[in-house]
């Protein structure tokens, strides 16, 4: 079973920031938080990952709470091409366990 | 181009036939994975391999088999014992450099068995 909880779906206006929350209250000390997204009928795409510090790359920012029990993925200026299912996963080794993810719909 | 290739993109088979899905990577990654995805669902792990000639079962290995004769290749065979083989199959690879290594996914093969 997936160890994370995400809202089933979210909407975001084009050009606005999309903030996708994730609860991972059972995360252990050596587990990273990974975010992937999957556009319809394609393979998942890696977005970002972090352990305890906030992270930023060219795609997104990842904010992890101090207790590490939750995190937020931020797409600073969402575009229509960001419409996808976003998966939050915590993992310490080989196996990624994918839950249902959040279906983000970016609207014009 | 570096990456993971899966072929074919669409595959159709008759019930009772075994079918092998191809996965190749040129990323020099040690670990490779096979996942299955059903409509509207997340990914489920079938098998994974961390080193040539070794592999481990994932959550739903029954009815599937794999081999890892070369580092670059990790083919998946869907056998006739798999009761519901119609699904989207995804291959991934990862460098084995501690827990921070992300997995990279191929484009997937959509298998339809009738």
First and last CA, distance of chain B: 35 Å
Low confidence ranges of chain A: none
Helix and strand composition category of chain A: mainly beta
Q: How many strands appear in the DSSP assignment of chain B?
A: 11
> Please, what is the oligomeric state?
heterodimer
Summarize the biggest pleated sheet of chain A: 5 strands, mixed
Roughly what fraction of the amino acids of chain B lie in strands?
over 45%
The number of helical runs of chain B is 0
Number of strands of chain A: 9
The helix content of chain A, as a percent range, equals: under 10%
Instruction: Find the structural class of chain B using helix and strand composition.
Output: mainly beta
**Unreliable stretches of chain B, pLDDT < 50, 5 or more residues?**
none
Strand residue percentage of chain A: over 45%
What's the SSE pattern of chain B?
A: EEEEEEEEEEE
- What is the count of helical runs of chain A? 0
Using only C-alpha atoms, the radius of gyration of chain B works out to 13 Å
In this structure, how is the largest beta sheet of chain B organized?
A: 7 strands, mixed
Most extensive interface, chain pair and sizes: A-B, 25 and 26 residues
Chain-averaged pLDDT of chain A: 91
Describe this structure in words.
The complex is a heterodimer of chains A (108) and B (114). Chain A has 108 residues and is mainly β. Chain A has a five-stranded mixed β-sheet with strand order 1-9-8-3-4, with no helix packed on it. Chain A has a four-stranded antiparallel β-sheet with strand order 2-7-6-5, with no helix packed on it. The model of chain A has no long low-confidence stretch (mean pLDDT 91). In chain B, 0% of the residues lie in helices and 50% in strands. In chain B, a hairpin with a 5-residue loop joins strand 4 and strand 5.
Defining traits:
A: 108 residues; mainly beta; five-stranded mixed beta sheet; four-stranded antiparallel beta sheet; 0% helix; B: 114 residues; seven-stranded mixed beta sheet
């Amino acid at each position: 079973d997936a160890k994370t909880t995400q809202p089933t779906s979210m909407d975001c206006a084009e050009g606005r920031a999309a903030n996708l929350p994730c609860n991972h209250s059972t995360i252990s000390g050596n587990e990273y938080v990974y975010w992937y997204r999957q556009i319809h009928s394609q393979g998942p795409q890696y977005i970002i990952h972090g352990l305890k510090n906030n992270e930023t790359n060219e795609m997104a920012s990842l904010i992890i709470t101090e207790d590490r029990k939750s995190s937020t993925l931020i797409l600073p200026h969402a575009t229509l091409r960001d419409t996808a299912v976003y998966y939050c996963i915590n993992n310490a080794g080989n196996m990624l366990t994918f839950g249902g993810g959040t279906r983000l719909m970016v609207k014009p | 181009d570096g990456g993971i290739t899966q072929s074919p993109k669409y595959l159709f088979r008759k019930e009772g036939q075994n079918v092998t899905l191809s996965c190749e990577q040129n990323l020099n990654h040690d670990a490779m994975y096979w996942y299955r995805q059903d409509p509207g669902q997340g990914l489920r792990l079938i098998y994974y391999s961390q080193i040539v000639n070794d592999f481990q079962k994932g959550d739903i290995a029954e009815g599937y088999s794999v081999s890892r004769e070369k580092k670059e290749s990790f083919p998946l065979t869907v056998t006739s014992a798999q009761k519901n083989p119609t699904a989207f199959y995804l291959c991934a690879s990862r460098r084995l450099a501690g827990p921070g290594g992300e997995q990279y996914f191929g484009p997937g093969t959509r298998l339809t068995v009738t």
